[in-house]
Amino acid sequence: MEISIIRFPGTNCEVDTYNAVKKVLGITSKILSCKDTVIPKSDLIIIPGGFSYGDYLRSGAIAAREPIMSDLIKKAKNGVNILGICNGFQILTECNLLPGALLKNSTLKFISKITNIQITRNDTFFSKDYDKNQSVKIPVAHHDGNYFVDQETLRAIEENAQVAMRYAEPINGSLNNIAGLYNNSFNILGMMPHPERAIDNQTGSNDGIKLFQSMLKSMSL
Amino acid sequence: MPDKDIYQSHGINEDEKKLLLESLGREPTITEIGIFSVMWSEHCSYKSSRYWLKELHTSGKQVIQGPGENAGVVDIGDNQAVIFKMESHNHPSFIEPYQGAATGVGGIMRDVFTMGARPIALLNSLRFGEINHPKTKYLLSGVVSGIGGYGNCVGIPTISGETGFDSSYNGNNLVNAMCVGLTTHDKIFYSKASGIGNPVVYVGAKTGRDGIHGATMASGEFDDESEKNRPTVQVGDPYAEKLLLEACLELMQEDAIVSIQDMGAAGLTSSSVEMADKGQVGIELNLDKIPTRQKNMTAYEMMLSESQERMLMVLTPEKTQLAKEVFEKWGVDFEIVGQITDTNNLVVKHKNKVEANIPITYLTDSAPIYKRDVSPRKQKQKSTAKINQNIDIKDTILKLLNSPNICSKKWIWEQYDRSIMANTLNPAGDDAGIVRIEGTKKAIAMSSDVNPKYCTADAKKGAKQAVAECWRNIISMGAEPLAITNCLNFGNPEKPEIMYDFVKTIEGITEASRELNFPVVSGNVSLYNETNGKPINNTPTIGGVGLINDISFLEKFGHMLEGDQVFLIGNKGKNLSCSAFEEVIMGRNTEDPPDVNLKTEKINGEIVKKLINDQLLSSCHDISDGGLIISICELLIKSNIGADINIANNGNILEELFAENQSRYIISVSSNNQDKMFEILNNASIQYHHLGNITGNELKVNDKIVISLNELNEAFENLIPELMAS
After folding, report:
1. 3-state class of B326 per DSSP?
2. Chain A residues with CB inside 8 Å of B421's CB?
3. How confident is chain A (221 residues) per 10-residue block, as mean pLDDT?
4. What are the distances in angstroms from CA B211 to CA B100, B286, B303, B327, B421?
5. Contact across the interface for A199 and B554, Cβ inside 8 Å
6. Chain B interface, mutation test: which of A17, A106, A110, most B Cβ atoms within 10 Å?
7. Would residue A86 show up in a list of annotated catalytic residues for this protein?
8. Which among B239, B413, B436 has the least Cβ separation from residue A56?
9. Do A4 and A40 contact (CB within 8 A), yes or no?
10. DSSP-H helix ranges across A68-150
């Protein structure tokens, strides 16, 4: 099982993500530089959280134009599974692998807390181990998590059941409380909550474990 | 600028000017005046405080490095060490709250990673003016965004802190930031330069004109024109800090670094002087090589710039190329800008001209040092207001929970990333933040504390109390307290009564830290915190670190549970002097804060720690602001459960509920564990009192006073959100 994690300058969750994959799945992943032009053969590519290039422009905007992205986009179109967490989600929208955009939180403030999230479906690469409509607790920590998209696309997303997870209550202004989103072929998931920080009850929740286990199960099939 | 004003405008007084001219034996260049001015500033030279700081208790078998380096270093076993320090960024944060606070966080982080440690936690201690003062909302909002903006971006969790409000800070808020890092004993880096001919290397962000004279600004009082100083506030770039952090830590894995020092206050000047001074060597800088952000910067500007995210290193020549490659990989500027010399002078060259040539001792050992006059301040008139014994107790409890210094600070800490690094073990709002050491069963507990009201009423008692409360907060999480850092915020030291309080503060800290084996390993002094001649309350913030050897007990610790019995460890409350009750309910301040009996403190604390580690307790919380009942309320709110509390009728119920006597804890214990607990308490012969049991969803006191959890929650949670939304 090959897992690659892409690090941009300013990424700060790559070690947490690497540790979570190691602890939960026993897999040693590769951390790649965004300056690489080729991603080695991977069953799963993770874009972890952080502040790529400081997010001084729009969040993820510069990262989305890095050399590694053309291979990522190619692999995405070929069906390789991609998980973008927080800044990773923002980067996936910036390079149009996912529709819409993540605007500043409606509070205009950074939000850091363990949130109640509803997992909408349990039949995707990323969600097999969850129950349908399962409520989970996963931390969020972001300034720009306010999901926005035009009405027509929103309708299509909902009709296609592409919403992967929703906040149990509004926290940042996201349309339809969207916390995580699939592309229309369901091989790409972008999510604002941090599953890598929810693998141990001692740190507040272990509800993220099932996400990692789902992915392993799917990769083993 | 006429000649006589040059010194004055650099904050150099007549005597100091004389000393400067006599030492140098010639007229200084403008660059040299700039260098003297920052090195002799209060901020860099500690000229008013140095004489007294020597008195601090700084030793213990856990101490690897005490004060005098970038940060203190403490052993935590298994070849691991924590490195930590607290620092103020008060003046800049008042002038420009976002950037002032942000760069305060950046600066303290560099102090820690410059010594080889990866930062694992941030804390802060904030003081603002009255909550309804027209500037408070703006300052609070800016400071909190700035702290979060920096720490969140670099990716270090902000895990604990305190925020207080008082009119004495109306014109001078306080921002004290603390950073704790982790390293191993063989990877601790110091600032002492050595090796004649070794290259001096500049790494990090480019030098701009920002922050020139920040140290001098920070060493003066404020007046109504202070906001004109805004251009002297530096601008933070946490992204640059993150890259610098990773590059430095990567290079530290190699044997390349002889010494390293971050460029903080007084930038290039103080970093080069401190490194050379510690190594008793000279240093020569060639400013043509300095990476600059702006064109045509003069030697004066480069030497005084306080641009952020920069470091100075002395490298071994053979590893210089390797070092360059590491920094280039991370996209961080790397330039050889000078060398270590045997002259013992600081020599600054720019465009083929020597702009400065100063024996280093003139800037350090021979810098002015003042043993300033001290005299006790006049006792304020004793308040004669009588306590109304028939006061409505329910209303009093809710008012206290809804008061600015006691209420929930959730609005603040929800803006700080707390869960990054995935090792933060407890929710915000506990007595101390706890961070697990990755790959071990160990964790570090951290807290920052001070009660400025106590410290202003009686500097020595207040300082003792600050150390004891920090110790107690760490104990409350079951940790062994190890050592402290401090940040001593005071007014103008040229006023004898302020200097007197400063001296008494040192006495108090020393006494408490010695008795509790809680030595000071690093610290910072911030003086001249005054506006238009009005000083802040004395605010000697104490930041403490403790060790949990085995975190297993935490699984079943932290919440009051249905059926638990509630006990008070320590004496019954006796005196309302200086309490939150007095301030909030009676609107008076008396001058006699509760004293700490350090022997009792130690015994009570050791026993509580044992009870927690023996897994006998469900929860524990120290008693501080607001007294016993507020401590119980805070635990109930956290645990989302009610309690039935009985206070004996033979005492004074107001004193028992609201007095702030020291060395006390509220604990809750399941019926199963009670007997074992009694055995330990009785053997240690410490005082304890049964208060009631945990049940239902309301707080009942003596059956008569009934407050629902909802009412408690609303009073506790609503104040700051309502203020910020208004």
Report:
1. helix
2. 15-16
3. 96 98 97 95 98 95 95 97 98 98 97 97 97 97 98 98 98 98 98 98 96 95 76
4. 11, 21, 11, 25, 32
5. no
6. A110
7. yes
8. B239
9. yes
10. 68-77, 87-94
pLDDT of residue B215: 60
Q: How many residues does chain A have?
A: 221
What residue segments make up the domains of chain A, in order of their start? 3-220
At B1 the pLDDT is 41
Residues A57-89 pLDDT 10s:
999 999 999 999 999 999 999 999 999 999 999
The amino acid at residue B180 is V
| Cα of B656 to nearest chain A Cα, Å | 35
Interface of A with B in 48-67 (CB under 8 A): 50-51, 53-56
DSSP string for residues in B10-34: TT--HHHHHHHHHHHSSPPPHHHHH
* pTM reported for the whole predicted model: 0.96
| Residue A169, min C-alpha distance to chain B (Å) | 16
**If phi over 0 gives left and psi between -120 and 50 gives alpha, with beta otherwise, what is residue B690?**
beta
* B551 to chain A: closest CA residue: A202
Q: Chain A contacts of B425, Cβ < 8 Å? A: 202-203
Find, among B337, B181, B188, the residue nearest to B252 by Cα: B188
Q: What does the pLDDT read at residue B225?
A: 67
> Is B10 a catalytic site residue?
no
Instruction: Note whether B332 and B203 are within 8 A (CB).
Output: yes
The verdict on ipTM greater than 0.90 is yes
Give the rounded distance of the alpha carbon of B256 from its chain centre.
Answer: 32
Please give the distance of CA B496 from its chain centroid, rounded to a whole number. 25
Residue-wise pLDDT for B504-562, tens only, equals 999 999 999 999 999 999 999 999 999 999 999 999 999 999 999 999 999 999 999 99
Q: How far apart are CA A7 and CA B340, in angstroms?
A: 37
Paired strand residues for B193: none
Closest chain A CA to residue B425:
A203
User: H helices of B160-266, where?
Assistant: 214-217, 238-251
A55:B418 CB<8 A = no
For residue B211, what pLDDT is reported?
73
CB distance B425–A202 less than 8 Å? yes
pLDDT for the residue numbered B386: 75
**What fold does the segment set A3-220 form as a domain?**
Rossmann fold (3.40.50)
Instruction: Answer yes or no: A194 catalytic.
Output: yes
Ranges of chain B with pLDDT below 50: 1-2
